[in-house]
């Protein structure tokens, strides 16, 4: 699909949740900061169940400016689902996914396009700093990326967010990935297409407030790990084997002692320790199993990832207008 010679058709996908005060500012800044001569841009805002006036702002802007299009999801499905909705509905040579709060600086987009024209399928914004993030969020992010890269064979760059350009053929692949648990950073990397990062300083949020707290991030991390790796399941095989081996030697030691010294009754504390320790370990391992069974349950229901309630009037050929994503004929 990607045509390198003609003026490119690029859609900017912007998930928004309660961003009434940011959208107009974003469009204005985008237009000023990106040299429009580089490509033909249009916007696809995905309203992810906002409860403020976001949809009214989008309606107003889309009437005024035919480059501005929107999809309104029927409720809040989360940023991953909102991005999926955007990706499912575009029809373009490349798409750029970015936040509305200008933490993803539009001025590096010409670099994205330059690399894309050189043949890269993913060009992501590599965060040089995370000044805006709290210390705990930074540590958490670091640990998560370590764990993810060890547990999966799909390395995702540590300093990448969702801000990226994806090529037409990557969009095509993403559309055909049927899973409901959508950890997009993993999915972007999964096909293994050529990828490059463009470093940038991540500024503070221009307007509004962050929509993510530490609890949301924790759940997000669990989802990311469990949807890309079965290592947490396998770990228990090794732990179990290790403990069984140790127990075997312990039993031999007990038998030998018994043969030499005869019966002894001492050992209340060691029994308690063993019971509590193994009880705990078993509960953890059952929890991990439950985590995967839960994921299987969600996948097995085959519910759509999102539901589109409304699309903008001006949605043109660059957009497809199916209302839900029910993949692979399910
Ligand atoms: N967002 C969304 N759905 C959600 C939460 C956030 O579409 O459930 C959007 C939000 O409007 C913004 C982007 O995702 O455009 C990034 O959110 P935010 O800036 O709050 O995240 P942070 O930069 O703090 O990680
Ligand atoms: Mg932000």
Write the H/E string, N to C.
EHEHEHEHEHEHHEHHHE
The CATH class of the largest domain, by name, is: Alpha Beta
Q: Ligands bound here? A: uridine-5'-diphosphate, magnesium ion
Strand runs, count? 8
User: Main sheet?
Assistant: 8 strands, mixed
CATH topology title of the largest domain:
Spore Coat Polysaccharide Biosynthesis Protein SpsA, Chain A
Cα Rg? 25 Å
Distance between the termini: 26 Å
Strand content is 15-25%
Number of domains: 2
Mean pLDDT: 86
Low-confidence stretches: 1-8, 326-330
What structural class should be given to the helix and strand makeup?
Answer: alpha/beta
Shape-level CATH architecture of the largest domain: Alpha-Beta Complex
Q: How much helix, percentage-wise, in residues?
A: 40-55%
What is the assigned CATH homologous superfamily of the largest domain? Spore Coat Polysaccharide Biosynthesis Protein SpsA, Chain A
Silhouette = elongated
Quaternary status: single chain
3D architecture notes:
The chain has 330 residues and is of the alpha/beta class. The protein has 2 domains: 9-214 and 305-327, Spore Coat Polysaccharide Biosynthesis Protein SpsA, Chain A; 231-301. 46% of the residues lie in helices and 15% in strands. The chain has helices at 23-33, 54-64, 79-89, 109-117, 135-151, 168-175, 184-189, 214-228, 231-261, 268-301, and strands at 9-16, 40-47, 68-73, 94-97, 122-127, 160-167, 195-200, 308-311. The protein has an 8-stranded mixed sheet with strand order 7-5-6-4-1-2-3-8, with helices on both faces. It is elongated and about 90 Å long. The site of magnesium ion has 5 residues, from loops.
